[in-house]
C-alpha cells in the first residue's frame, strides 16, 4: 500500500507541473549531482545535457562540429587548436561568453579538487596531455596538446565529461563551493527536490548554433519549445507505464515488451531510435576452451544473427556485426561483413579444435531495457544445434560487471553504452589484459590499429584502419557483435519531436499540443 501511495503522489505531482506546460519525463533514478562531469551517471548526464554546452559537440553521424565555438582550426603539426567563439552565446545570467571564461573553465576542470571525471583523459596519464590553454583575444582560444590526436575534440564532447560544458564563474560561490550550473544551453537550472524531481526552465534568450533548421545530435537546431522540463524520479517500471497511460507523464523510456501495447494505443506513440551502443557476446579469449579460435569461430557460425536480432529486439534492431555503428560516417561496405550461419562448417571447426562437449557458460542479467538474457537464450539454442554445451548463468547487473572487470567469465551477454568515435569504442574492448582484466581482446595487431586510430586525423586513412580492424576481428572472433542498441520510448501523441538521442533524454525541438 505504501508503494502505491508513493507512486500516486509522484504522478499527481507530475500532473501539476504538466498544467504549467512543463514537459514531464521519467528517469529511473535521481541525478547524482548538478556539477557537469563530476559524480555523474547516465541520468545526470541527460539533465546536464540541456543546461551546458562545450566548445564542440557531436553531430548525428559522429562528426565533431563547433558549438559554443563558431569554428576551429588545427595547426599543420596537429598540436594547436584555435577556437573562434560565437558572438551570440550568452550565459543564463545574461553575460557574454569570452575566451577568459573558457580558460577559467578549463583550469577549474583540471584542478584536483574539482574531481572531474575526465581529467585523466587530458593530463597525460592516458593518451593526451593538454600543455596550454590561452585566451588570445576576447573571442579566440588556443589549446595545445603534446602529441597529435584524432580523438581530442571527441573526448571533450562526451557525456561523461559533462560535455566539457562552459559555465559562468558565478556557478561557484565566493567560498569555492559549487552553487548551480549557469550554462549556455536551451534550458536553465531551476529546482532540485532530491529523490523526487529536477526542474529546468526555458532559456528565452537561447540562440542555436548554425544549422539547417533540424536537430542534429548536439549541434543542430536546439530551440527550447516548451516552458520547462520536469525530470521525475520513478524507478518502478509499472509506475512509469501507469503515468504514461494516464497522461501524468509525457514521455519515458519503456521496455521492449510494451511495444505491442503502446503500438495500438489511441493516446500513446512509440519512439524507436537506434544509438551507437552495442549488444554483444563478450568472450574471454584466455579461457581454457575459448582460447581456441576455432571454437569461437564455430560459435559465430552457429548463429543466424538476423533471426536472433529480430527475436530479442522485438523487431526494432538491425544486425550489425561491427564495432562501428551503422549510423557512423565510418560504417563502410567492409563494416557490413559478418559471419554467415554455416552449421556444417561450425561442426567441422569444433572437430578440428578437439572440442569434446566442455561446458561454456554465458553470463546474463535480466534488466528490462537491454537484451542480455533473451540474447543468451536464443544464442544458447542456436549453438546447441552444432554440439556446443552452452549453459546460462543469470546474475544481477552489478555482479555481472564485477565478473567482467575481474576477467572471471567465459562469455558475457552484455550491452555497452554509446561511444561516437570508433576509436573510443575500441578502447572499451582492446588492450593489455594483464593491466586491465576487463578488456576483451589483446591481439597485438588490434592494439596497434587502435592506437593508430587515436592519432590519424585523415578521414580516409582512418577508414582504412577501421576496415582492417573489422577484418581482423572476424578472423579472431574475440566476441560476437549482434546489433546497435535501440532506444525505445513511449510518449503521448500530443508530443512532437524525438525526445531521445544516444540514450540521452533530448528535449529541445520537442513540442506539446495544448
Task: Explain the overall architecture.
InterPro entries: Peptide/Ni-bd, SBP_5, SBP_5_CS, SBP_5_dom. One of its GO terms (cellular component) is outer membrane-bounded periplasmic space. It is found in: Periplasm. It is a single chain. This protein is of the alpha+beta class and 514 residues long. The chain contains 14 helices and 20 strands. It has helices at residues 2-18, 42-48, 99-110, 152-156, 237-246, 259-263, 293-301, 305-312, 343-353, 372-384, 397-406, 422-429, 444-455, 459-476, and strands spanning 22-27, 56-58, 64-66, 69-74, 80-85, 130-137, 140-145, 187-193, 197-202, 228-233, 251-253, 268-283, 359-364, 389-394, 411-416, 479-492, 495-496, 500-501, 504-505, 511-512. Helix 7 (293-301) runs antiparallel to helix 9 (343-353). It is globular. Mean pLDDT is 93; it is low at 1-9 and 12-20.
Mean pLDDT: 93
Quote the distance from N terminus to C terminus: 34 Å
User: What is the CA-based Rg, rounded?
Assistant: 24 Å
Give the uncertain stretches in residue-range form: 1-9, 12-20
Shape descriptor reads globular
Helix content: 25-40%
* Biggest beta-sheet profile: 6 strands, mixed
Major beta sheet, strand line-up:
11-16-12-15-13-14
Strand content: 15-25%
Helical stretch tally: 14
Determine the structural class based on helices, strands and strand pairing. alpha+beta
DSSP, total strands: 20
Amino acid at each position: 500500500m505504501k508503494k502505491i501511495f508513493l507512486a500516486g503522489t509522484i504522478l499527481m505531482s507530475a500532473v501539476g507541473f504538466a498544467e504549467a506546460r512543463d514537459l514531464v519525463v521519467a528517469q529511473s533514478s535521481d541525478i547524482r549531482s548538478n556539477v557537469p562531469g563530476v559524480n555523474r551517471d547516465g541520468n545526470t548526464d541527460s539533465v546536464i545535457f540541456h543546461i551546458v554546452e562545450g566548445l564542440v559537440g557531436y553531430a548525428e553521424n559522429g562528426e565533431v562540429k563547433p558549438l559554443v565555438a563558431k569554428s576551429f582550426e588545427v595547426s599543420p603539426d596537429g598540436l594547436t587548436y584555435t577556437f573562434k567563439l560565437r558572438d551570440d552565446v550568452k550565459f543564463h545570467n545574461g553575460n557574454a561568453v569570452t575566451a577568459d571564461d573558457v580558460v577559467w573553465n578549463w583550469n577549474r576542470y583540471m584542478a584536483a579538487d574539482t574531481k572531474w571525471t575526465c581529467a585523466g583523459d587530458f593530463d597525460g596519464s592516458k593518451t593526451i596531455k593538454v600543455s596550454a590553454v590561452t585566451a588570445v583575444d576576447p573571442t579566440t582560444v588556443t589549446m595545445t596538446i603534446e602529441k597529435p590526436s584524432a580523438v581530442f575534440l571527441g573526448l571533450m564532447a562526451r557525456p561523461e565529461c559533462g560535455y566539457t560544458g562552459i559555465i559562468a564563474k558565478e556557478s561557484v560561490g565566493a567560498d569555492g563551493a559549487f552553487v548551480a550550473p549557469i550554462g549556455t544551453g536551451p534550458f536553465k537550472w531551476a529546482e532540485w527536490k532530491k529523490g523526487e524531481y529536477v526542474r529546468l526552465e526555458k532559456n528565452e534568450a537561447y540562440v542555436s548554433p548554425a544549422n539547417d533548421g533540424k536537430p542534429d545530435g548536439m549541434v543542430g537546431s536546439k530551440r527550447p519549445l516548451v516552458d520547462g522540463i520536469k525530470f521525475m524520479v520513478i524507478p518502478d517500471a509499472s509506475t512509469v507505464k501507469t503515468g504514461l497511460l494516464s497522461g501524468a507523464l509525457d514521455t519515458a523510456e519503456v521496455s521492449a515488451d510494451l511495444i505491442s501495447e503502446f503500438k495500438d494505443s489511441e493516446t500513446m506513440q512509440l519512439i524507436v531510435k537506434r544509438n551507437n551502443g552495442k549488444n554483444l557476446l563478450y568472450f574471454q579469449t584466455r579461457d581454457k576452451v575459448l582460447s581456441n579460435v576455432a571454437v569461437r569461430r564455430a560459435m559465430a557460425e552457429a548463429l543466424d544473427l538476423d533471426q536472433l536480432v529480430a527475436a530479442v529486439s522485438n523487431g526494432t534492431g538491425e544486425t550489425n556485426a561491427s564495432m562501428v555503428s551503422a549510423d557512423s560516417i565510418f560504417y563502410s561496405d567492409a563494416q557490413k561483413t559478418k559471419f554467415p550461419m554455416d552449421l556444417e562448417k561450425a561442426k567441422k571447426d569444433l572437430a578440428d579444435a578437439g572440442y569434446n562437449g566442455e561446458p561454456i557458460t554465458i553470463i546474463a542479467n535480466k534488466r528490462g531495457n537491454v537484451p542480455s538474457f533473451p540474447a543468451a537464450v536464443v544464442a544458447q539454442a542456436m549453438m546447441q544445434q552444432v554440439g556446443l554445451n552452452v549453459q546460462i548463468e543469470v546474475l544481477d547487473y552489478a555482479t555481472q560487471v564485477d565478473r567482467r572487470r575481474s576477467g572471471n567469465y567465459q562469455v558475457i551477454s552484455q550491452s555497452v553504452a554509446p561511444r561516437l568515435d570508433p576509436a573510443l569504442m575500441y578502447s572499451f574492448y582492446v588492450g593489455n589484459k594483464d593491466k586491465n582484466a576487463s578488456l576483451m581482446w589483446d591481439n597485438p595487431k588490434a592494439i596497434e590499429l587502435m592506437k593508430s586510430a587515436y592519432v590519424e586525423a585523415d578521414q580516409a586513412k582512418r577508414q582504412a584502419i577501421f576496415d582492417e580492424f573489422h577484418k581482423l576481428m572476424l578472423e579472431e572472433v574475440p566476441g560476437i557483435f549482434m546489433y546497435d542498441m535501440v532506444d525505445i520510448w513511449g510518449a503521448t501523441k500530443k508530443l512532437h519531436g524525438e525526445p531521445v538521442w544516444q540514450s540521452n533524454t533530448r528535449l529541445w525541438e520537442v513540442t506539446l499540443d495544448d
